[in-house]
Amino acid sequence: MQEIRFHGRGGQGAVTSAEVIAEAAIELGLWAQSMPSFGPERRGAPVLAYLRVSKEPIRIRAEVAKPDIVVVLDDSLIFTIDVASGLKADGLLVINSTQSEDIIRKETGFGGKIARIEALKIAMECLGVPITNTTMIGALIKASGIIPLEAAQKQLSHRFNPKLAEKNATALKKAFESTTIYAPKKISAAGKKAAAKKATWRDILPGALVENPGGSKANLTGDWRSQMPVYDKEKCSKCGLCYVFCPDAAITIRDDKYVDFNYDYCKGCGICAMECPADAIAMEAGKKKK
Ligand code: SF4
Ligand code: SF4
Known about the structure:
Elements: E1 2-9, H1 14-27, E2 31-37, E3 46-54, E4 69-72, E5 81-82, E6 92-96, H2 101-108, E7 113-117, H3 119-126, H4 133-144, H5 149-159, H6 162-178, E8 180-182, H7 189-196, E9 199-200, H8 215-218, E10 227-231, H9 241-245, E11 251-253, E12 259-261, H10 271-275, E13 281-285
Parallel strand pairs: 1-4, 4-6, 5-9, 6-7
Antiparallel strand pairs: 1-3, 2-3, 7-8, 10-13, 11-12
One iron/sulfur cluster is lined by residues 229, 246, 248, 250-251, 261, 266-272.
């Protein structure tokens, strides 16, 4: 049995990734189960999904504590959570990242096989949105061969309308072809210990990360962002609608009635851009202000 744990953020599609592979595996005559695991978080908050695929019936119904494979859909998580917690030494880490192998190993303390993919770039190119689930499936299949690529592509046609299925199938194939595999490398005991000091995936369960008094001030939820609003003051009509609709109070109105964005807390939901009647806000990929 292959046990897989997905780490993502709300809205990136970690749960869908697990479901697509489980459904494809079942169609292939295998046994599979997938489970989401999250609290009351909104878009951008850390979420988990579990997947098991086996040639034999699966009796266990619990969370995956000692995965063979960990899939990370957003590499900002490796700086705050011990995503490699419980990952078998001869296991596999599949990660959406622009970071170097050295940084990934340093932050995760993982010495096993790593598959790295710039999934966000591919998702934006192929789908136009920062949803990296299908791209990550392509990388996972390339690195693990858990199911054939065609089986995943077939599932996409069941799940999405023909146009969207085609776009996702393109993203899947592109990711499959672009994934870089790094062979295992020895990590010192000190390196493993440093990485293991972070919060574990269990610490984010069962509720949200921000739960103690003062927590919203201490946790800069701007880290959760995978795209960011870019403001064009020249187009702004000062209507204030973005301020009204921002669910995170990350927009303030200046004395001159133009607006400011607080990137420490903006989670990149895109609602301000959708509501702006003057097209003065555009969502761009990335976490940081350029
Ligand atoms: S994208 Fe816009 S609406 Fe969403 S949190 Fe950021 S500023 Fe607020
Ligand atoms: S919604 Fe658009 S036009 Fe209105 S204040 Fe915000 S940026 Fe300006």
